[in-house]
């Protein structure tokens, strides 16, 4: 599929959508069409598809709709066998080829050690973050450990985006947390408040301020009950978000940050001395130190406790509060955490020992200089060691040039070339997203050109997270320019990630994406000059 007659139609269409009040995250489907308004580049029987996203939890539903026998969540094309490949493993059991298989589950995580010692554990959050405090926190293990309870509060379905309800389901999380604190048999409790991260990805400053204040207020309620029950408490976060709300040019930054995060220790017996700095990998060894348990040799992190009396007895119970997205910044400019009402955090940072923990870049297994994310953050909190991310492994594979020799990619491309079928590259178009990189897309496009693929369709997903406003049009233009330079391919569809990367079984959203990909449903964009 050649680009010779194309003059950046899809990037222009995205820019036009901005003018009509749309934005990247919720962009309604745009579909490239010919002069007769017939959609181009649809996914058809026997085509090859490469879903190049990483992370995986937001990619499962769309993948299932193309690959699962007997799929019934919405009507699908009944004669559409496609050869489907994914960049990483999104979920065990999916009928796909995986280019970069998982490195295996981790052993000797914090949760493993506590389970082996017979500790009862409770992990509490709402569905929006359930995978992070279970699968990732436990070292990529899906099933609960012995004596582990996972309490997942349903995420509200009555709002489109959470700036309409910045408090989300925080009251229910708090009620569940209080009940577990009052249950003396539960010895280790993890409570994740997701509001700052979730609402922080939406460009609505008043809503973010409400989210920050809600987390601070409910953290205070939980801390008060823990103090009454004499439970040792650690307050921390997985990454930063809204403490750097502005780019240098004044534009709003709704993405994650490279800021350190707080670590505050509230011990019922005595203030202890902490090291001033560390990494998320130090949290698990610190918890084990407080509980009087040795850290396994695989934990390369170190306890943050600098001094404690020899006579101090081990903590009998411990509560870990994760303020999702709560970063630290010494700059007041653009710092919404500093602007919000946060009497609880102000007080405990003033009255209790604290440290600053690195939560981005190499400290959490990501490429140097990149921002943190919830997956890496929770994984490293629970693992107590550095785990190199899929993104870093893929970036290094591209640099070594063995990416272009990957058997899964070769099979997909050679099948398309040999049978004169289309190759579809599908995924996020971004550099900063934790779900994928435009560099990975470009590497696949280069490889397709070398392997003799003649029909290349690119299906792009846009999201604002970590990007400047209206950046999607710029990225789509870059992809269209890449097509021109290769003499191969077209961007044939564009949609906001709200519709394509769901993880809460909002099947109406995934159906909209599916029907765009297969039937060309969406606003038709002429590809002719």
Please give the structural blueprint:
Layout: H1 9-19, E1 30-33, E2 48-51, H2 60-67, E3 83-88, E4 97-100, H3 110-116, E5 121-126, H4 130-136, E6 148-153, H5 170-182, E7 188-193, H6 195-200, H7 205-228, E8 232-236, E9 261-266, E10 273-274, E11 277-279, H8 283-290, E12 305-307, E13 318-323, H9 336-339, H10 343-351, E14 354-358, H11 374-383, H12 390-400, H13 407-418, E15 423-428, H14 438-450, E16 456-462, H15 471-486, E17 490-496, H16 497-500, H17 507-519, E18 523-526
Parallel strand pairs: 1-18, 2-3, 2-15, 3-4, 5-6, 5-7, 7-13, 8-13, 11-14, 15-16, 16-17
Antiparallel strand pairs: 1-17, 8-9, 9-14, 10-12
Helix pairs in contact: 1-15, 2-17, 4-11, 5-7, 14-15
Describe the protein.
It is built from 17 helices and 18 strands. The chain has 529 residues and is an alpha/beta fold. Strand 2, helix 2 and strand 3 form a beta-alpha-beta unit. The strands form three sheets. The chain has an eight-stranded mixed sheet with strand order 4-3-2-15-16-17-1-18, sandwiched between helices.
Structural class comes to alpha/beta
Q: What characteristic shape results from the CA principal axes?
A: globular
Overall residue-averaged pLDDT value: 94
The top level CATH class name of the largest domain: Alpha Beta
Return the CATH topology of the largest domain.
Answer: Alkaline Phosphatase, subunit A
Radius of gyration from CA coordinates? 24 Å
Widest β-sheet, arrangement of strands: 4-3-2-15-16-17-1-18
CATH level 4 superfamily of the largest domain: Alkaline Phosphatase, subunit A
Characterize the largest beta sheet: strand count, sense, and whether it forms a barrel.
8 strands, mixed
Query: How would you name the oligomeric state of the polypeptide chains in this document?
Result: single chain
Distance between the termini: 16 Å
In percent, how much strand structure appears in the residues?
A: 15-25%
> What's the total number of strands?
18
At CATH's second level, what is the architecture of the largest domain? 3-Layer(aba) Sandwich
Low-confidence stretches: 1-6
- Number of helical elements: 17
Helix content, binned percent? 25-40%
**Number of spatially distinct domains:** 2
